């Protein structure tokens, strides 16, 4: 079994940002590029756990690379290379931390909006619907059950929160106020097209993509797809053969971990509780199964 990479240490590079899962570095002499590394950290309820999920970062990176390739005809993406040999030479000494879990990417102006597309009603959207059938500006049909399919996919943007805070769902009208109608329309159109193509492919592999989150950046006036794409961290993946509307669904994401944490007397604030080996191993297995189903 591989050793976990929990926190990268690349002293000759400049750490730009350490997120819940990814570490982002600037490379001296290559200001138009960034090095993005997916660690084995896992977060739940916006709290990063102390215990890693072995090889999770590799799984996320390989899934993203697969989707970048499949979806390239819809929108360009930021990936330059995932081959350490093709990275600037200063990176080669860190091969052990980079192999299989990193990407050299184009530097972009990151758009301040999370592009969420929902094909099924679940999670926070289901919670909101139970209180009011108009959610995020969408008048939804009466009488929907949990996990029901929407008549058509919904684009539901959110603002990007500072680390440790929750993203905030906003209406498309609010998004237009932030970035302008033309760019908002393009982002919505790209997101829906990405979701529809990915969903059709995933169904052929026995997986329902209930919802997902895309990130877009701008380079030379052009929108491009950035960050991770359609991974178990950014999406709800459900096994099609077990799908039953009217209840929550088994999934290939961290819902297994969330369910365990919900069974504890824990206030969903740091510090996180320790995770038993059984929980980390079963979570790792769910991530790996998603990768194998989608990409093999």
Explain how this protein is built:
- Helix 1 packs parallel to helix 7 (277-295) and helix 4 packs across helix 5.
- The strands form four sheets. Strands 8, 9, 12, 13, 14, 15, 16 and 17 form an eight-stranded antiparallel β-sheet that branches. Strands 1-2-3-7-6 form a five-stranded antiparallel β-sheet. A two-stranded antiparallel ribbon has the order 4-5.
- It folds into two domains: 14-107, Phosphorylase Kinase, domain 1 (2-Layer Sandwich), CATH 3.30.200.20; 110-253, D-amino Acid Aminotransferase, Chain A, domain 1.
- The protein contains seven helices and 17 strands.
- It has 296 residues and is of the alpha+beta class.
- The chain is 29% helix and 26% strand.
In short:
This protein has helices spanning 56-70, 95-98, 123-131, 172-179, 181-204, 255-262, 277-295, and strands spanning 14-18, 22-26, 33-38, 43-44, 47-48, 79-81, 102-106, 109-110, 113-120, 134-135, 138-139, 149-155, 158-159, 168-169, 207-219, 222-226, 235-239. With 296 residues, the chain is of the alpha+beta class.
Strand percent estimate:
25-35%
Mean pLDDT: 95
Q: Separation of termini? A: 21 Å
Structure annotation, total helices: 7
Give the full name of the CATH homologous superfamily of the largest domain. ATP-grasp fold, B domain
CATH classification, class level of the largest domain: Alpha Beta
**What is the total domain count?**
2
Shape: globular
Q: Over all CA atoms, what is the radius of gyration?
A: 19 Å
Q: In sequence order, what are the helices and strands, one letter per element?
A: EEEEEHEHEEEHEEEEEHHEEEHH
Number of distinct beta strands: 17
Poorly predicted residue ranges: none
* Helix content bin: 25-40%
CATH architecture of the largest domain: 2-Layer Sandwich
CATH fold label of the largest domain? D-amino Acid Aminotransferase, Chain A, domain 1
Derived from helix and strand composition plus strand pairing, the structural class reads: alpha+beta
Largest pleated sheet: 8 strands, antiparallel
